[in-house]
Amino acid sequence: MRQSAVCAPLRSGGCAFFLHRRIVESNPSRGELDRVDSTDCARGLIVRQEQAYVASLRFRSRHKIRSTPAEVGRRVGWHPGAMNYTASELMVAAAAREIRDGDVVFVGMRLPLIAFVVAKKTHAPGAVGVFENGILRDAPARELLYTMSDGPNITGALSCLSMLECMALLQRGRVSLGFLGAAEVDRHGNLNSTEVRKADGGLTRLPGSGGACDIAALSQRFVALLDHQKFRLPERVQYITSPGYGPWRQARLARGGPAAVITTRAVLRFSAQGVAYLDSHHPGTSIEEVLAHTGWALDVSPQVHETPPPSAAELRAIRAYDRKGFWTR
């Protein structure tokens, strides 16, 4: 049962508002999302958090902090020219395969954003994307997004909610899958994005949780993405920002937990005891290399295999959306 959505732009004081009546869609695979009427969407383009994020991108670019494709390739053992895709494109494809048709997905930005696009265009046309700023979409934005509050993400949105209404979907168990990044991920899938202590004893403060703790705690499952380096995959994180598996999963946080950790070298999954194991290693990366760059004695699945490379359809979807490789180069 599907009703039309109405999104009428109004203007007040030179600032666009959107009066939006939420659609009601019955789908056995994800339950029925309730009707929501909202006028609390997007004043202008951006909130301070998004502005700070853009500033951080500029800082990283100016100081050349971001790795080049060749640097990423050397670091993960890939050889330039040996394959027709980048490490990031492989991670996007692997992340897209975690999305099931009918999932309600907390999308986020960067590689998960592209993964949502790929899933929608290949195997999961019924997935719905949720953004932390309150935007819901049942179709990818027509243009590449640099922040979640960009105009193209608002245009044609399924719904524009307040952040409170958006996060309430998590609390009510309506979010199937969330994507997260972190500075550290440990053997139980706990995430640290709060602080790390250097070898010299100095403490580096990180951005913190944002909505990550809510997503890790309340979504039906979550997937983490990060660069596969030994110091980023310790046996135990220095600070639990977002919970993975632990005693809390048998008590207050009974649902959910990490389903996978997708890195630049491999895909890790979790046993019934909540311990990570190696499920697949990426092409050009050996099992021994993955183990050497992991901060604990990582178990290896008896069915360990090579991660399937991106298919032609997946690569087409990635490159049609991120034409200049802004997120995937």
| Uncertain stretches of 5 or more adjacent residues | 1-49, 63-82
Classification by helices and strands: alpha/beta
Number of strands: 17
Oligomer: single chain
Number of helices: 9
Quote the average pLDDT: 77
Shape: globular
Strand line-up in the sheet with most strands = 7-6-5-4-8-13-14-15-16-17
Provide a compact summary of the structure:
The protein has 329 residues and is of the alpha/beta class.
Tell me what you see in this structure.
The protein has 329 residues and is α/β, with parallel strands linked by helices. Helices cover 24% and strands 22% of the residues. The protein is built from nine helices and 17 strands. The chain has helices spanning 48-62, 69-76, 87-96, 111-121, 151-154, 163-171, 212-218, 287-292, 312-321; strands spanning 6-12, 15-21, 37-38, 104-106, 128-130, 135-137, 159-160, 177-181, 184-185, 191-192, 195-197, 203-205, 222-226, 258-263, 266-270, 276-281, 299-306. It has a ten-stranded mixed sheet with strand order 7-6-5-4-8-13-14-15-16-17, with helices on both faces. Strands 1-2-3 form a three-stranded antiparallel sheet, with no helix packed on it. It has a two-stranded antiparallel sheet with strand order 9-10. Helix 3 crosses helix 4 (111-121) and helix 4 crosses helix 9 (312-321). The radius of gyration is 20 Å and the shape is globular. The protein starts with 5 loop residues before the first strand and ends in an 8-residue tail after the last helix. Residues 1-49 and 63-82 have low confidence and may be disordered.
Fold blueprint:
Blueprint lengths: L5 E7 L2 E7 L15 E2 L9 H15 L6 H8 L10 H10 L7 E3 L4 H11 L6 E3 L4 E3 L13 H4 L4 E2 L2 H9 L5 E5 L2 E2 L5 E2 L2 E3 L5 E3 L6 H7 L3 E5 L31 E6 L2 E5 L5 E6 L5 H6 L6 E8 L5 H10 L8
Parallel strand pairs: 4-5, 4-8, 8-13, 13-14, 16-17
Antiparallel strand pairs: 1-2, 2-3, 5-6, 6-7, 9-10, 11-12, 14-15, 15-16
Helix pairs in contact: 3-4, 4-9
